[in-house]
Amino acid sequence: MLMQLAAIWNYLIVILLMMVGLFLVISSANLVKKLVGLSIFQTSVFLFYITLGRVSGGTAPILTDAPDTLYSNPLPHVLILTAIVVGVATTALGLALILRIKESFGSIEEDEILAAKNESAAADMAQAKPGVEA
Amino acid sequence: MMMPQTALLVGILVPLVVACLTPFLANRPLWRDAAGPLGGVATFIAALHVALAVQAGETPRLFVVQIAEGLAIDFAVTPLGAIFGLVASGLWIFAGLYSVGYMRGAKEKHQTRFAAFYAVAVHAAMAIAWSGNLLVLFIFYEILTFSTYPLVTHKESQAARDAGRLYMSILVGTSIVLLLPAVIWVWMVTGNLEFSSGGILADALDPKMAPMLLALFAFGVGKAALVPIHRWLPAAMVAPTPVSALLHAVAVVKAGVFTILTVVVYVFGIDFLSASDAATWLVWLASFTILSSSFVAITKDDIKARLAYSTISQLSYIVLGAAIASNMAVQGAAIHIVMHAAGKITLFFCAGAFYVQAHLTKISELDGQGREMPWVFAAFFIGALSIIGIPPAGGSWSKFILMVGAVDSQLYFVLAVLGLSSLLNIYYLLEPLSRGFFRSKVKEVTVESHPLVVIPPVITALLSLALFFYVDLFADLASLMVAP
Amino acid sequence: MNDGGIIAIFLQNLPVLVVVIPLLLSPVVAIITAPRLAWAISVAGVGGAFLAAILLQSITGSIGRVTYHLGNWEPPWGIEFVVDSATSLTLVIMTGLAFLATLYARASLMSEVKHTDLGKCYAAWLLASGGLFGLVATGDAFNLFVFLEISALSSVILISMGAGADRRALSAGFNYLIIGAVGATFYVIGVGFVYAITGTLNIADLAARIAEIGGNAALYAGFGFMIAGIMVKAAVFPVHIWLPAAYGYAPSAVSSLLAAIATKAALYVLARLLFTLFAGVPDITELAVTYVIVPLSLAGIFVGTVMAIYEKDIKLLLAHSSVAQIGYIALGFGLASSASVAASFVHIGNHALIKGGLFMAVGGFVAALGSRANLASFVGIGRRMPITATAFTVCGLSLAGLPLTAGFISKLYLVRAILAEDAYVITALVLLSSALSLIYLWKIIEVMWMQPATAKAPNLAENPAIYFPLWIVALANIWFGVDASWLVAASRASASALLGGGL
Prior knowledge:
By secondary structure, chain A is mainly α. Chain A has one domain: Helix Hairpins, CATH 1.10.287. In chain A, 73% of the residues lie in helices and 0% in strands. Chain A has helices spanning 2-7, 9-27, 31-53, 75-105, 110-128. In chain A, helix 3 runs antiparallel to helix 4. The N and C termini of chain A lie far apart (76 Å). Chain B has one domain (4-482). Chain B has 18 helices and two strands. A two-stranded antiparallel ribbon of chain B has the order 1-2. In chain B, helix 3 packs across helix 18, helix 12 runs antiparallel to helix 13 (327-358) and helix 13 runs antiparallel to helix 14 (374-388). Chain B is globular and about 65 Å long. Chain C is 78% helix and 2% strand. Chain C has one domain (5-499). At the A-C interface, helix 3, helix 4 and helix 5 of A face helix 5 and helix 6 of C.
C-alpha cells in the first residue's frame, strides 16, 4: 500500500497542492489570500502536466545523435508555458483589481466589502425616491 | 359586392386601422368617437360578405406569412368562424356607440387610450374568428388578453390593478401552462395545425389520450370560464361597463367558447370525440358550472356581478353542447353564441345605463325605479327573456336545439340541468324588473338623460327579438359546420 | 493554398479571420486616445468578423465544413480551426449581436465609463469578442483553454469598467476572475487527463481516438473536469453565482455584449464536448446529461426565475433571468435529441437578441436617470422615455415568449422537443417557469406604463444615438417571431452536424 502510494508521489503532491489551493480560494475572506490560493491551484496543474510528460527512462527532449534515445514528451511543457503566462496575467489582473477595491471600499476583507455594498444598495433605493408616487 | 378575400382583409384590418388612428384623433373627440361605430359598420359589412360567401359554400382564405415549416399565419373562414365574426363585428357597432355615451356620461379619463385598445380587442376577436389554424387562434387569443388588460385596469385604482393581475394571471397562466402544450401536442402528432371539417386528430391521436388533450384545451382556454377557472370574469367587472358588455359578454368570453367549439369540431372532429368517449367528463363539469354559477348569481346584489355569474353559466351551455359532441348539440352551441351575445350585451348595456343615468349599481337600489327609466327596463326585460329562452326571443332557439341534441345522445340528465337552470334564470334575471315596477322606491335619484346609453340597449333588445324570426343565416352556417 | 486566386484564398482564410481581425485590432485601439476613433476601429473590427461569419455560414450551407490550419501545420500536430454548420450559426449570432453592441457602445460607454479609460475599454472589448469567437471556431482542446482565458480576463476588465459608475463592479469583476479562473483550470485539468490517455489535443482526432479506446477511469475523470469547467463559464446552476453581479454592475454596453455572446459561446462548447469530443463514450455522456445537466438546468430555470421575481434592480433582475434562460438552452442540450438540440440553437439566437436588446434599453434608462435603474426609478418611465421604453417592452415580451416574438418560437420548439421525448414532467416544469417569468416581466411593465410619475419627477432625455442598434434588435425580435424559417432551418442543420458525428 505504502509502496504503491510512494510510486505515485508526484501525483499525490499535485492533489495535495490542488486541494490546498482550492480550499484557500473558497475559505479565505481576504482577497489577496484568495488570489494566492488560485495561484497554488494553478501551479498544481502545471506540475500535473509536467509529470504527465515524463517518460520513464527518457531524457530531456533535446535532439541527440544517438538514434534510439528515449525522450520525454516535450508537448506538455510547451502547453504549460502558455498556461503559466495565463496564470501570471490572471494574478496581475487580480492584484490590480484588489488595489482598486482597496481604494474604493477601504478594505480587502470580503465581509467588510459586503457591508459597504449593502450601504450602496440602500443608497440606490433612497436615490430613486423622488420618482415615486407620494 | 366585395370579393370574399377582400372582405376578409377589410374585416381584420379595419379595427386595427381604427386603433392606430385613434391616438392621432385625441384632440378631436367627435372624430375619435365616431371612428368606433363607423369601423363597426365597415367591419360588419365585411363580415356579412364573408358569411354569405361561406353560406354559398366557399372558404375565403388569406395567407399572410410562413413562420417556419408547418407553421403559418393564415386565415380561412369556417362556418363557425363566420358566425362569430358576424357577432363580434355587429355588436361592435352598438357597443361603440354605447361606449361613447358611457364614457362621456360617466366622465371617465383616458378616453383615447380606451378607444384604441377597445378597437385592438375587436381586431383580435375578428382574427380569432377567422383564423385558419390553431397557431393563429392561439396568437390572437393572447393578443386579446393583453389588449383587454388596459381596459380592465382602466380606472388605475388599486382595486383595478389587483383585478387586472388576477385577470392576467388566470388567462395568461392557463394559456401558457395548458393551452400552449395542447397546441404543440396537436402540432406534434399531426404535423400541421390547419382546421379541417371532420377534425385532424382521428388517425393521429391514441383515443386513450383524447380526454387528456381535451382537458388541456378545456382548462387552457381560461376565457371559456369553466369552474374552477372562472374567477377572472367577476374580477374583470371592475372595468367600465362597455368593456364588460362587448368584451366580457361578447368578444372575450365568446372567443373562449368559440375556441373550444372550434377545437371540438375542426381539430378533434365530433365523430372521433363521441366515439372515444373523451368528453363525458366535460358534460358533467359543464353541467356543474351551469348550475353552481346560477346559484351564485342569485346571491349577488351587484348588477354586474350577477350578470357576470349568469355569463359563466351561459358559457357552459356552449361548452356543454361541444362536449355532447352530437350534430344537433354542436349546432345548438354555435347558435347560442349568437343568441347569448345579443341578450347579454343588452343586459350589460342596461346595467351601465342605470349607473350613468342614476348611479345605481345594486339590484336592491332598483326598487321602484321602473317608471323613471322605462326604456331601459323594457330592454332589460327582453334581454332577460332571451337569456332565459322564452319565445319570442332568440335565445329560445339555441336552448331548444341543445335539448334536442341532449335527447339524441340520450343524456336525459342534461334536460334536467337545462330546465333547472332556466328556472333559476327566471328568478335572478326577472327579480330586478319586479323590484323596479312592483316595489316602492328606497332611493331618490335624479335621472340624467343620456340618449347614447339608452338607444343601444333598445336596439340590441329588438335584435334579440328579430333573431327569433330571422335565424336562417345562422342556422345555415351551423348546419354547414357539421356537414361532412 | 494558392489555387483559385485572391478570392479563394480569402475564403479559405475565413475561419481564422473571424477571430484575428478583432484580436489584431485590439492593441491598435489600446494606444489610441481619441475615443471616437477607437470606437470606429472597433466597429470595423467586429463588423469584419460579422462579415466573415456570414460568408462562412453560406459556405458551410453548401459544402458543410471549412477548416484552417494555423501556420500551415497539419492537424493533429498543428492547431486547426474548424467551422461546420453549428459553428457558423453560432458565429453569425455572436458576431451579429457583438456588432450591434459595438455600434451601441459609443453612446453608452461614454456615459458610464471614465473618458480616459475609453481607449483601453475598446481594446478589452475587441479582445473579449475575438476570444469568444475563437472559443467557438477552434478545433483544438488546449487552444480552446487559451481563448477561454483571453475572453475571461478581458471580460473582467470590461466588467470592472463599471466602477466609474458603481464601485460594486470591482468586486463583481474580481469574483468573476476567481471563479472563472477556477473553471478554466478545471477544464485544463480535464484536458490533461484526456491528453494522457489519447496523446492528442485536436478535437476531431480526440473524438476518433476516444471512440477507439472506449470507457476508462482517467477518461471519465477528464470528462468530468472538462464539463464542470465549461459549466462554470456557461453559468449553469449552481456555478452561475458569478453571473448576476457581473452583468448587473458592468457598464450596460458590456452587459449587452456579454449577455448576448459570452455564455452562448460556453454553451456551444458544452454541446461540442458532449456530442463531438466525447461522442465515442455514450455511456458517460448519457449519464451526465440525464443525471446532471437536465436536473441542474431545471433547477437553474426555477432559481433564476424566482430570484428575478424578488429582484428590484432591473439589471440584476435581467441577469437572474439570464440564469434561467441559460437553463432552457442547457436543457435542450441535455435532452440530446436532434429536435431538442435544434431548439437550443434557436434559443441561443433568440435569447441573444432578447437580452442584448434589453440591456441596451436599460443602458438608455441608466444614462437618462443618472442612477441605477430599479423599480422605484422606473415609475412612469414609459411615458417619460417612450421610444426606449417601447423597445424594452418589445424585447421583454419576447423574453416572456409571447406570440409573434422570437421568444415564442424558442418556446414552441423547445416544448415540442420535450414533448416528443414523452417527458411530461419536464414539459410541465418548463411551462410553469415560463408562466412565472411573466410575473417579473409584468412587474416591470406595470411600473413602466401603468403608474404615472409624480409631477416632481425630473424630465428624462432620450438618447437618439442608441435608437439605431436598439431598434434593430427590437425589430429583429419581432422579425424572428414572424419569419423564423432561416433560424429554424439553420438550427436543424446545426443539430444534425453536431449529433451526426460532427467534426
